[in-house]
């Protein structure tokens, strides 16, 4: 367990940089579980006669968690300045644990939607805090790796959600996945409360007002880069989180069994985790923006493959694995590229911008997916996501160009 040592004066000693990064990653694991478990439970939600919901409503419910997440991101900056990022992160973990409980006891679709908004608010605030804390405790030459280690928690949480779904839902229904998430999240909350994190001096001693931090990012040397980062985040997350919400049902409707469909969601998140280690290492060596372009290409290839309607499990697994590597790693590398071009006091702000735009895309992904899937099935779903993936690829190229022409904002 991660705990802080207590000195002779009775004051908790701060966690080491490595311990901070591990704690942040564990927090993000539970964020990933609580995000992706909805997509895992979609097939049984649609089959639940007590809920009586259709694909469009399901897509809307899948999207509101990200609307809540955007709210969490927007309030996290002022609250972090007042409470400190560690305290804010702990409070936010408690909020998304509450959201999981509310879903588990929800009697109808409306309550599920409200509960998912609560979940999203907690996740948005916790994710920005965790990423910023982890990045501030990392050296510049390990930025891609540390951000990957931290955000790898999202697909790792998705792996757990898929595994729990495979073993729990056939016996205890879709609500069991949310109860499991609530219990595990409360355990992580206790661990977080036992630790003490001290921000680096260059961050704690910054006197920049929040608005000044925001305007500093649009310095002539970096504003083009920031715009491309924002656009890439939106388009990538439309595809990535849209697939997390709709892949299981899309594959089931394509002729795969429920177990096979859930296994493919496991492949999606598992490939994201494994692939991210390699892409992060490559990003630290040759530059995160360049590797992001390669990952965006993998996403496009995977979607084109699924558009052909593979019936063999092996072929579907290959295409889904490419999507997992591409979708998740692209976002990690976008964030790493952005933080490498700003001074330490501005990292939290640029991460907040990246995450805010990502959550816009994350909201649109499931909602667009629900509308498209209800109207045209799996083939049209993958085609629409492929369009967003191509736009993301173009903006990733823009990040490379913008990074070459610009510089680094120093305060």
Task: Please outline the helices and strands.
Layout: H1 17-47, H2 55-83, H3 85-104, H4 109-136, H5 143-151, H6 153-172, H7 175-194, H8 201-204, H9 210-216, H10 223-253, H11 258-286, H12 288-307, H13 313-339, H14 344-405
Helix pairs in contact: 1-2, 1-4, 1-5, 1-6, 1-7, 1-10, 2-3, 2-4, 2-14, 3-4, 3-7, 4-5, 4-14, 5-11, 5-13, 6-7, 6-11, 9-14, 10-11, 10-13, 10-14, 11-12, 11-13, 12-13, 12-14, 13-14
Transmembrane segments: 20-46, 58-76, 88-106, 112-133, 145-172, 178-197, 217-241, 261-279, 291-309, 315-338, 350-376, 382-402
Subcellular location: Cell membrane
Organism: Corynebacterium glyciniphilum AJ 3170
Summarize the structure in short.
Helix content is 82%, strand content 0%. The chain is mainly α.
Any overview of this molecule?
The protein is an all-alpha fold. The protein is 82% helix and 0% strand. It contains 14 helices and no strands. The longest helix has 62 residues, at 344-405. 58% of the residues are buried.
Summarize the amount of helix as a percent range.
over 70%
SSE arrangement, N to C: HHHHHHHHHHHHHH
Shape: globular
Mean pLDDT: 83
Q: Biggest β-sheet, characterized? A: none
* Percent range for β-strand residues: under 5%
CATH superfamily: MFS general substrate transporter like domains
Poorly predicted ranges (pLDDT <50, ≥5 residues)?
Answer: 201-207, 406-411
Transmembrane segments: 20-46, 58-76, 88-106, 112-133, 145-172, 178-197, 217-241, 261-279, 291-309, 315-338, 350-376, 382-402
Main location: membrane
Keywords: Membrane, Transmembrane, Transmembrane helix
Membrane topology: Multi-pass membrane protein
